[in-house]
Amino acid sequence: MIKQKIDYIHNNPVASGFATNAVDWKYSSARNFQDDDTILEIDSIGFLS
Hints:
By secondary structure, this protein is mainly α. The protein has 1 helix and no strands.
């Protein structure tokens, strides 16, 4: 259920037409999941493992 909600949040900029891909959105934490640089820092608690 948590992964479903995170995916939903990551895809909001795409659904709204602000980006074509979730990782293209500057403020998206989706970039953290691809080991990409992002403005936002997230803790790696490991709740998705």
